[in-house]
């Protein structure tokens, strides 16, 4: 009689643990926009989420430790004139965040340490080049100040944020229809895109050439997502012809047949994949779902192994994913998600159960650090490099804010700069506030005089 052998994996018993109520961010008005992005971005310093705003687009930035009920008058980043669709923190500067909006612009903001004191209306850089709304933002993983944006004009632009100029353009001849997703390879040499024309493409952005493409990775008509995973493979999520949700793993050298294809369920939400290159685990979060599935990717067949699923009662409107250097290594936390409810942001920690509280080297190999491996000029010149790795053995301590260097002499007509971007009020803002204070003081004095006269009248009677 043959005995079935259970596959050995240190991640078989990973479990999700939602944060307690006092560790959540309560009373935040999450955006109602129908757009398939995560609506949330986190790093070791801040959590940012796209919120409802009247008369334009805004997103909220909160210091990570500022949990509990959020004041309804908390200042926001509110420079866009139409709803914000996507946000992304710079991997090399924890104070810099980029946003894409329905107003066809990309804006780059510098958040002061400690968070916002006043509403931030003026970005460090405004990047204008798209003719329709911008729904996808992605920073280069290893090159300094290189930012990619994709719009509903079917164009991908690669920007040098330091000069505010679009240095590469992938026009509508590459993508004839709406772009659903864009992902950088680990060294930033290639991008992987999925498109409404039912094709997944591997593109060398500096040459503008399609290296490989796969037609109809999933038979259904709903949107497909594609991300790079380890060893030159890509993972896609989509729908079957019968509208069943699927996840598939592909070898980029042989895209004819998938290495693995699994059907999950019949829900309608698009699955957002998050890949951790340190553990080779991919997490699938569906918008409108109340669960997070996770799979382990290995180098031998069947390549894609289902691990488990975290379930909760309430559905998620969006999801943020913490970089590895922001995790608590002494608690064996291998991933942390920030789940957006309708009025709340809830951290969810993914933990490997271990009895020892010592540093677990097998769970935390050297991971991508905050330093860029290349300058924008070096990458544009043809150089590639993997991320500069750091050890998490003694924990990661966020560095002091790094200044975003922008060459303001170039392209000034297409860039707005203002003192509010640094978080320090300008002299004219201070003078306006002082004038308001003087007016209030005069009003208080006048009210006090009236009160004194009223008291005299009452006493006389």
From TrEMBL:
Q: Where are the WD repeats?
A: 77-119, 127-169
- Any one GO CC term of the record: protein-containing complex
Q: Where in the cell is it found?
A: Cytoplasm, Cell cortex; Cytoplasm, Cytoskeleton; Cytoplasmic vesicle, Phagosome membrane
Principal location listed in the UniProt entry: cytoplasm
Q: Which InterPro entries match?
A: Coronin, DUF1899, Trimer_CC, WD40/YVTN_repeat-like_dom_sf, WD40_repeat_CS, WD40_repeat_dom_sf, WD40_rpt
Q: Name one GO biological process term.
A: vesicle fusion
Q: A Pfam family for this UniProt protein?
A: WD40
Against Gene3D superfamilies, the record matches this protein to:
YVTN repeat-like/Quinoprotein amine dehydrogenase (2.130.10.10)
Concerning its family, UniProt says: Belongs to the WD repeat coronin family.
Quaternary structure, per UniProt, is: Binds actin.
Quote the protein name from its UniProt record. Answer: Coronin
Q: Which gene encodes it?
A: CORO1A
